[in-house]
Design brief:
This protein is about 55% helix and about 20% strand. The chain is an alpha+beta fold.
Amino acid sequence: MAKNKTINVKGTEIVILTESNTDEYISLTGIARYKDIEHTDSIIQNWMRNRNTIELLGFWEILYNPNFKPLEFEGFRKQSISH
């Protein structure tokens, strides 16, 4: 069963979801809230468009997703470089 815990980072509460003894997920919304409490959506949108983020997601998919389609992903990667 998944459970949540929070940590306080410089006055901002950030949720960490624990699904097992080894799997923890940190809330992107909590991190974005630290930058701008009223516009967390914009912070996350900009992060998701960043070329480095796109490349990190592609690398993660290669490692952990057996159904990953690298040729389809290449279009996303190239589009992120052009912006």
